[in-house]
Amino acid sequence: MYEKWGDVSNRIKVKEKGGFGWNKADGKREKTRGNHIGRERESLLLFSLLAATLPFKRILRLRDISKLDHPLPAPTIIYDQNGRVASKISASKMEAVSIERIPNHFLEAIVATEDRRFYDHEGIDYFGILRALVHNMKALEWAEGGSTITQQLAKNVFLTNEKTLHRKWEEWFIAKKIERTYSKKEILEMYVNRVYFGEGAWGIKKAAETYFGKIGILVYCCKSRVFFASL
Predict the structure, then answer these.
(1) Structural domain of residue 7, as residue ranges?
(2) pLDDT per residue over 173-215, tens digit each?
(3) Contact 123/176 with Cβ under 8 angstroms?
(4) How many beta carbons lie within 10 A of that of residue 196, not counting itself?
């Protein structure tokens, strides 16, 4: 009817130990120490990422992208004695064309070919980068780069073609700044006037002259399928 004091005593001791032979207070201290170490590691990782990002934020702040506002220089036209154009002397390898002269179907084809999410991202297409990474892993080669139209514009105007991590980071930050400064329409216009279309042709006007011997942009754009493989 009555339990022996020894049995009750043993049950109390087991309860105090948490039922598993270890002290709850000690276990709590170990768990707290583990959480503290975990938070320290997270803080160190965050600090390292911030430290690595600061130089590039400085690049973003100090990088002058006003060069994009400067119009491409018009060529000097030389006429013959009959008033016909004899030749053109250009200080630039590119000549600008207003986006208003370029048919929408051509611009849509550019976006579909080069940067399908152009109107959805803010300079960097993270989904595109992931897609390119998966494709490259399957192909066992660097077949896709995942660069957006804005990134390509940043590289063509401000950077070199060197394949370094620093150059890629700089490209990303400049692309971000371009997106914050210009509209999508302006970015697309600057891109088609500065992109390389192959055969030594930089910009859509030079490409029209190179491929078709005409400067008529409408004629060129109607035949645009010819050169999309060269982009």
Answers:
(1) 1-47
(2) 899 999 999 999 999 999 999 888 887 888 888 888 887 776 5
(3) yes
(4) 17
Task: Share the mean pLDDT of the chain.
Answer: 70
Which residues make Cβ contacts (< 8 Å) with residue 84, sequence separation at least 6?
none
- The H-assigned helical ranges of the chain are 5-16, 24-62, 104-114, 126-139, 149-158, 165-181, 184-194, 204-212, 217-222
Whole-angstrom Cα distance, residue 45 to residue 38?
Answer: 11
Beta bridge partners of 88: 77
Amino acid at 111: V
Kindly report the length of the chain: 231
Name the token pair of 181.
């400064």
* 130 within a domain of the structure (yes/no): yes
Which pair of tokens denotes residue 92? 């630039």
Distance from C-alpha of 111 to C-alpha of 116, rounded to nearest angstrom: 5
Return the amino acid letter for 141.
E
In a domain, 2, yes or no: yes
- Give yes or no for residue 89 having a pLDDT over 70: no
Q: Are residues 148 and 217 in the same domain?
A: yes
Tokens of 167: 């150059």
Amino acid at 101: R
DSSP 179-203: HHHS-HHHHHHHHHHHSB-STT-BS
